[in-house]
Amino acid sequence: MANTFLTPVTLWKDFDDSLPLEEETLSERREKGAVIREVRFLGREAGGDRVKIYAQYVLPEGEERFPAVMILFEAGCPFDEAFVGRFVARGYGVLCVDYCGENGTQAHTVYPSCIDYANYVRAGGHLDRAEPSARETSWYEWAGVARYAAKFLSTRGEVTRFGAIGLRTGGEVLFKIAPYAPISCMISVCAAGWLAYRGLEKFADGEQKVFDEEHHRFIAGIDSQSYAPYVRCPVLLLSAVNDKKHDYDRVYDTFQQINPEVQKAFLYSSHGNGLIGMHSLADVDLFLDKYLKERSVFLSGPIGLSVEEDAEGNLVARATFDAEGELHECGIFYTERITGSHARDWTRVMGNPASVRESVGTFPLELYEKSSRALVYAFANYSNNFSVTSKIQEVVVRKPYKNMCVKSRIVYSSERDSLNGVSGFRRRARSVADCFADGRGVDAKLLPGYGGIMGATAEAGLVSYRVNEPRYSAPEGASLRLDAYCGQDASLKVTFYFDDDEENGYSAEARVAGGGKWKSILFDASDFKSANGAHLESFVGALSVVFVGSAEVLVNNIVWI
Asked: Do 338 and 235 share a domain, yes or no?
């Protein structure tokens, strides 16, 4: 077969989703106010056989008519009962669809042998190459499953309206069905295309990569940004900064390409160590209330953002908010680390909604005096708890400004920074559906220690990415000093990471005697050892530092000396 260049139109022009579903119920049980049915129905035909789709259909017990959501979880991840349960509790039916195929259990979607690569465990090059065309990819088969799953929901007499939620790879699949499937709305989480751009930093210096023909076939036929102009239903995009798994720098580029006649909203989640904060679920709930329960709900339009010099010679960010909404909180986030998107420290600058005039808020952008570039985005939370953020805008520093700052040896101080500079260290093992923070004490918080002085702590540990920001990076030959407090005897483990995956670190431990005054702790670089016993030579080049206490250890005044 010759190489074929296919688009979102030509790829799906001949897709047949008219075949009968022939659905069957494999099992049924009642649990926690829900009826849980394991179902199987047929998908598209391939090689004289049909795809046998496995799904779990969860119904709110006692409800005869209800709206529903189809959930496509991340490839390789199991259905998350906690995530499903929150929607059932709000009166939604939920269809969890397996598109990944073989997973070591009997309950999975079965693909004909001629498209064996649709099984995620054997996808191989069919996951990231369009060879000879976009039709011979795992994505095409997964989207085909989702098309038939949408058809399944559309035939349910008990379902009033239904939308779809896609998490990571599931979100990429959603973009491919949104132009065609009868969904009333879609929510894409940490997914918006640009898969062909892996390893290419949006804001990096250097020449633009020239893609070969195969990459262009993949971009045109598979990447979600190519589908954005064809989306027909309202869209909510949720994205986490510092996420290693998706290109959050480019998510807004996809957002802007969505048909302007389509209602849409966008939200970055910050200080989540690559996970979506639980506060973002308020957006999910309000969005579904509007489009599936048909309630009158205010959803903000996009935020406009510009960066300029004010009359006093200060660099400021100006954000234009939705005039129809009542602001509850607003402000900006900014970073001076351009590349290495997973390890940025995003400093938050809060604004006063009362000072916003004619829907325009002004926020100081106090950059390091030696910075040549910075990144900034604005945020708003409205009185109904709906939140939105702007695009990430690159700032090129062309001159000195009055409000620029000198280099700081103070990495973190609760008195100066509140919780800026630290956040909860969230491992994915503690997440909901591998996307959302689970809300069980993983957020950083300020608590009083001796003398009422506040310190930062988090159940799973604290992480700071400031150590790689130009303003706060370690001088050559520096030592690290910090203050710690705990109400009981405890140990504090400090780990510096120099790798992107935060897997291979250099650690040192200190004893924190319980009660009394704050304890001053001093570390030299040589105090830190790797897992194989190698000593750290210098703090220079560290990407992050993590603090984990054996009990609730408060941390403050982290300083290079």
From this structure: no
Peptide bond preceding 400 in cis form (omega within 30 of 0):
no
User: How many Cβ atoms are within 10 Å of 285's Cβ, its own excluded?
Assistant: 17
Q: Name the residue range of residue 437's domain.
A: 410-560
CA distances from 123 to 94, 218, 245 (A): 27, 15, 18
Cα distance between residue 514 and residue 71, in whole Å: 47
Question: Which residue stretches of the chain have pLDDT < 50?
Answer: 1
Quick: pLDDT tens for 246-271: 999 999 999 999 999 999 999 999 88
**Segment 156-165, tens digit of pLDDT:** 999 999 999 9
**CA dihedral sign of residues 27, 28, 31, 34:** positive
In a domain, 548, yes or no: yes
Both 388 and 419 in a single domain?
A: no
pLDDT for the residue 430? 63
- CATH number, domain with residue 57: 3.40.50.1820
Whether residues 311 and 265 share a domain: the answer is no
Residues 135, 209: Cα–Cα separation, whole Å: 25
How distant, in Å, are the alpha carbons of 26, 54, 102, 271 from that of 106? 12, 10, 8, 39
What backbone phi and psi angles, to 5 degrees, belong to 535? -85, 145
Question: What is the distance between the alpha carbons of residues 363 and 351, in angstroms, rounded to a whole number?
Answer: 7
Give CA separation, 488 vs 340, 444, 513, 516, 554, in Å. Answer: 38, 20, 7, 10, 11
Taking the C-alpha atoms of residue 353 and residue 360, their distance in angstroms, rounded to an integer, is 10
Both 57 and 143 in one domain: the answer is yes
Task: Flag whether 4 is in a domain.
Answer: no
Report the distance separating Cα 329 and Cα 326, nearest Å: 9
Stated length of the chain = 561
Q: Are 130 and 222 in contact (CB under 8 A)?
A: yes
Write down the pLDDT at residue 271: 82
Instruction: Tell me which H or E stretch contains 549.
Output: strand 544-549
Which element (helix H / strand E) includes 341?
A: none
Residues 471 and 339 in one domain: no
Residue 16 covered by a domain: no
b/e per residue 70-92 (b: at least 16 CB within 10 A): bbbbbbebebbbebbbbbbebeb
